[in-house]
C-alpha cells in the first residue's frame, strides 16, 4: 500500500515564469514527486515518503537556485 504525503513550500528567489519552469523541472526529477502547483513564491508537491524525503525535495529546490521553507 502506497502512502502519499503532500508538502507545501514557500519559495524565495523566484522572479519570473522562467523560475517557475526551472523549479518545476527540478522537482519532477526527484523520485516519486508529483508537482501539484508551482507559482512565483510557492510550490506544492505530493510524494511517496518511502521513495523520497522532504530533504530530497529541499535539496532539489536549492540545487535549482532557490530557497524553501514549509508553508504555515
Describe this structure in words.
The chain is α+β, with helices and mostly antiparallel strands and 72 residues long. It has a single domain (5-70), classed as Alpha-Beta Plaits (2-Layer Sandwich), CATH 3.30.70.100. 31% of the residues lie in helices and 33% in strands. The protein contains two helices and four strands. It has helices spanning 17-28, 54-63, and strands at 5-12, 34-39, 42-47, 67-70. The protein has a four-stranded antiparallel beta sheet with strand order 2-3-1-4, covered by helices on one side. A hairpin with a 2-residue loop joins strand 2 (34-39) and strand 3. The longest helix is centred in the first third of the chain and has 12 residues, at 17-28. The radius of gyration is 11 Å and the shape is globular. It starts with a strand and ends with a strand.
Per-chain topology:
Elements: E1 5-12, H1 17-28, E2 34-39, E3 42-47, H2 54-63, E4 67-70
Antiparallel strand pairs: 1-3, 1-4, 2-3
Amino acid at each position: 500500500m502506497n502512502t502519499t504525503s503532500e508538502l507545501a513550500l514557500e519559495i524565495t528567489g523566484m522572479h519570473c515564469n522562467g523560475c517557475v519552469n526551472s523549479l518545476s523541472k527540478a522537482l519532477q526529477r526527484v523520485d516519486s514527486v508529483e508537482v501539484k502547483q508551482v507559482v512565483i513564491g510557492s510550490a506544492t508537491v505530493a510524494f511517496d515518503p518511502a521513495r523520497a524525503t522532504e530533504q530530497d525535495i529541499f535539496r532539489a529546490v536549492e540545487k535549482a537556485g532557490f530557497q524553501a521553507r514549509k508553508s504555515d
